[in-house]
Amino acid sequence: MSTARSDAATDSATPDEGRERPPGRRRPALPDGLRPYLLPLLLYGVTKLVGLTVFAWLLEWAGDYQKKNPRFGGGAHWWDVLATWDGWWYLQVAEKGYDPRPLQPLAPGGLFTVQQNSVAFFPLYPGLIRGVSEITGLGLYGSAILVSVVASFVAAAGIYAVVAALAGVRAGTIAAGLWAVVPGAGVEWAVYSESVFVAIAAWCCYCVMRKRWVAAGLLAFLAGLNRPTSAALIGAVGLAAIVTLARRESRREQGIAGPVYAMVAAPLGLLTYVAWVGLSMGDLTAYFTLQREGWAHYFDFGKYTLDVLGNTAVGHNAYLFAFSVPDLLGVQIVLALPFLIALMLRKRPPLVLVAYALASIVTVLGTQQMFGNTGRYLLPVFPLLLAPAAALSRLKWPSLAVFFATASLASGWYAHYVIFELGIP
Fold first, then answer.
1. Residue 267 is assigned to a structural domain of this protein
2. Compositional bias (Low complexity) spans (predicted)?
3. What is the CA radius of gyration of the chain?
4. Count of the separate structural domains present in the chain
5. Which domain holds residue 277?
6. Are 187 and 145 in contact (CB under 8 A)?
7. What separation in angstroms does the CA of 30 have from each of 27, 34, 39, 44, 170?
8. Distance between CA atoms of residues 130 and 91, nearest Å
């Protein structure tokens, strides 16, 4: 009877079953470890592409970019806008390297008191641009966009991994899509370092959650070579490591070497670059002086933020770096923060996420900088997406499709056009 069944099974099988396929006919299979990321990355990519398309249409329809300086929001083509403002500086560093001469005083009476210098822009992102250009043969602009786009998908995957571990796969997928449409998302596919930083930060936090301390320390080290705001991530990793060492059970389970290594390695990238700038420019505080007097960016304990909020509340613009439309959006974001923070805390996320998010928010709101860029400055604070993603995960996919279609279309304006053309990103 078993023989008959075997024969029947053989007869009903397709001709190719049981035969070894020639090497040329094998279908490429996605590795099992990558399959969970397919849907969130697809959602992120499609949503982001729609927003970028709307941005391009708005640029061409208005045509204002063609009248602007190619360094300051202009260019011959719409895509040139993506490499203006900070993008111009990053491309300069990628092409020429740094010129850390001593601070050059400017004539008194102006807003800035020292000449701007490229050392204000950290080396990891322009280094990647130069490396990709050398390897691929692409120009610096094409390499910069390639690095940003690839890093943005790595970041979306990291956000998915973190949120999925805390709130489920569906919420993780939605969180990846939300990151494509949040205010400030326009710089994710531009010559800006945010995508690289968020990719590092998301996976660093994930490694801490999984107690992979060596990887977390190395990622925090890299973050320190990418942006000064990495201090929030470095502090969060250090705090998580200290708490781990302070608890007997976790110390016994995870050992001492890993957390200690993470604590020591995490700040080295940031400290090394800031020290190099100081030594090269003949003043150990040169980096901070340059930020304060060359860009008017410095920590003022929230005085500037309160000034902007007070002015906009009564319809005035008697404050530094006033841009009406971006600033109004920035006010709405600030007003939403307490609610988003409360919802995040209600989910009881791991300490590293809480510390990283709160430290980042305090840094942004406590610093004098372009208030209209609040959305962009908060772009790395992905833990705030946890609660909205979990709430949206209760909706069915048709409703989610309507939400993301609407949000992606609108993001072409509020997340792209507003910051690049109506303000200074």
1. yes
2. 1-15
3. 24
4. 1
5. 36-116+123-421
6. no
7. 10, 7, 13, 19, 20
8. 9
Residue 296 belongs to a domain? yes
Stretch 148-158: mean pLDDT: 98
| Neighbour tally for 24: CB within 10 Å | 5
Domain assignment of residue 21, yes or no: no
Per-residue model confidence (pLDDT) at position 325: 96
Q: What is the pLDDT averaged over residues 14-33?
A: 55
SS3 sequence, the chain?
A: CHHHHHHHHHHHCCCCCCCCCCHHHCCCCCCCCCHHHHHHHHHHHHHHHHHHHHHHHHHHHHCHHHHCCCCCCCCCCHHHHHHCCHHHHHHHHHHHCCCCCCCCECCCCCCCCECCCHHHCCCHHHHHHHHHHHHHCCCHHHHHHHHHHHHHHHHHHHHHHHHHHHHCHHHHHHHHHHHCCCCCHHHHHCCCCHHHHHHHHHHHHHHHHCCCHHHHHHHHHHHHCCCCCHHHHHHHHHHHHHHHHHCHHHHHHHCCHHHHHHHHHCCHHHHHHHHHHHHHCCCCCHHHHHHHHHCCCEECCCHHHHHHHHHHHCCCCCCCCCCHHHHHHHHHHHHHHHHHHHHHHHCCCCHHHHHHHHHHHHHHHCEECCHHHHHHHCCCCHHHHHHHHHHHCCCCHHHHHHHHHHHHHHHHHHHHHHHHHCCCC
Is this model's pTM higher than 0.85 or not? yes
Residue 396 CA to chain centroid, in angstroms?
Answer: 28
What is the rounded average pLDDT of the residues 295-304? Answer: 96
